[in-house]
Amino acid sequence: MHRLSFLLLAVSLLLSSCYRTEIEEAAPQLVVEGWIENGRAPVVQLTTTVPITTSKHSVDSLDRYVLKWARVTVSDGTKEVILTGVYNRRYTPPYLYTTGDMLGETGRTYTLKVDYAQFHAQAETAIPAAVGLSGIQVRPLEEDSRRYTIKASVQDDPQTEDYYKVFVRTSEKDMTMRSAYFGVFSDRTFNAGNTITINNGRNNLLHPAPDIYFSEGDRVLVKFCHVDSTGYRYWKAFEDYNAEGRNPLFNTMQNLPGNVRGGLGCWLGYGAAYYVVQAGRK
Q1: Do 125 and 230 touch, CB atoms closer than 8 A?
Q2: Is residue 22 one of the residues assigned to a domain?
Q3: CB-side exposure of 179: number of CA atoms within 13 Å?
Q4: 229 — phi, psi (to 5°)?
Q5: Short-list 271, 269, 274, CA closest to 42
Q6: Suppose 72 and one of 97, 101, 149, 222 were both cysteines; which one would form an S-S bond, judging by CB atoms 3.0 to 4.6 Å apart?
Q7: Are 147 and 141 a contacting pair, CB within 8 Å?
Q8: Helix (H, G, I), strand (E, B) or coil at 244
Q9: For strand 133-140 and strand 264-278, is the pairing parallel, antiparallel, or unpaired?
């Protein structure tokens, strides 16, 4: 009798595990990824949220979620310019909005507005003063001399609370700066020498498996950004979700803490400084 009860329980569990849950498709939401930095034009990329389905999305199929023909404007408080949508295969996704009529200036505040069909969004940001790096060193790993990490010291002001974000690029064929692993910092966590480690970033399309190190011959473009508290919170959450998303014990089913009213995502000002570093021999 006990064996029969156990068998019936096992069968019921098996049947319940095979039950297919119907997922109600949510309404699409606007997603904004935009930035403006000192001496450079604003860049805005627009997409909509991708619905959860039981079928796999190919990379090419994601193009349908890229928004083209939106009305995108940026104002610096004195003038407002309309950004033009252009294809650029060196970015991911390969469509962006930009302009040649406005360059970012340190200390100024910029208002972004987006209008597309039922979507209407707005966000503000300011560009902090750029902060430099010094003592940049490329160091091979002890266990593998053909792989490298980069060390540098931040020229940080100890009298103010500041936040920083690092991006990297290793291919001149790509314009997209990748978010460096563990590349967001608060100066309250700096050591006595303000030393940071600059790691590689993940290319989701070409190399989905993460690797935080640089390879022999990499010519690394480092973009070191001074960001405000909004940018820090956004990128810190992005890093946390990347790390915790591989752990089933953590819930990462939350939106990133952006600053876009009427949509998801961020519009950020970067006080940016650029450096070119060679990893090993060419």
Answers
A1: yes
A2: no
A3: 19
A4: -65, -30
A5: 269
A6: 97
A7: yes
A8: helix
A9: unpaired
Residue ending a domain, choose from 61, 94, 126: 126
pLDDT of res. 208: 56
CA neighbor of 111 nearest in space, from 86, 236, 102, 119: 102
- The Cα 156–Cα 132 span in angstroms is 8
pLDDT in tens, 54-79: 566 666 667 888 999 999 999 999 99
Q: Which residues contact 171 (CB under 8 A, 6 or more apart)?
A: none
Quote the number of domains for the chain: 2
User: Can you tell me the distance from the alpha carbon of 137 to that of 220, in angstroms, rounded to the nearest whole number?
Assistant: 12
Q: Which amino acid, residue 248?
A: P
Mean pLDDT of 238-255: 66
Single-letter residue type at 10: A
What sign for the dihedral angle of Cα 191, 238, 270, 260? negative
Q: Give the range of the structural domain holding residue 236, as residue numbers without chain letter.
A: 133-253+270-278
Output the domain CATH number for residue 159: 2.60.40
